[in-house]
Amino acid sequence: DAGVIQSPRHEVTEMGQEVTLRCKPISGHNSLFWYRQTMMRGLELLIYFNNNVPIDDSGMPEDRFSAKMPNASFSTLKIQPSEPRDSAVYFCASTKSGGRVGGEDTQYFGPGTRLTVL
Amino acid sequence: KNEVEQSPQNLTAQEGEFITINCSYSVGISALHWLQQHPGGGIVSLFMLSSGKKKHGRLIATINIQEKHSSLHITASHPRDSAVYICAVRSPNTGNQFYFGTGTSLTVIP
Lengths: 118, 110
Known about the structure:
The structure holds 2 protein chains of 2 kinds. Chain A is mostly beta strands. In chain A, 0% of the residues lie in helices and 53% in strands.
């Protein structure tokens, strides 16, 4: 398997522009997570999906952020409008959830998208 | 207040040394994860555990639920073990939120 695929790997944009990050989870995995990592705050969970349904988006910083999972093989994280403080590395991870609360297998991380907002 | 505390923050060891990284947490958890982040930025999930002990190669992870503490041990450390090790817990008490430690930066010197 190719693992979790993220695109783009690097994105540089100007403040105010819309940014869309993409993630393809590992085939057969039914849980998908979006994380953000910054030097100041470390790793943070933004949102996660189970069977394509958003379960918890309490980590999404504000309304400028939105995430979708239209099918089991694709998810997007959109920032509109982007701001310099959104600059970070965004990771997507997937896992096979057993369905129990907290029940999950090892998470597999994508390589991340390094976002720079000027 | 951090829900997850790791120690030490930085660690330098000679090749071959036995290494221990500690993680303490203050919330009820359903699972604890140990992650490894390489200098290039990639993240690898090492262990997910909810009780007892797990071993994979030279890595051993233990957890004590009563004491809310986990340790990651590396035996016969090697320079390729140099990375940041991150402890993360998932808490059912707060809607299955993830809480992350700030990481332990390990450097193994040949």
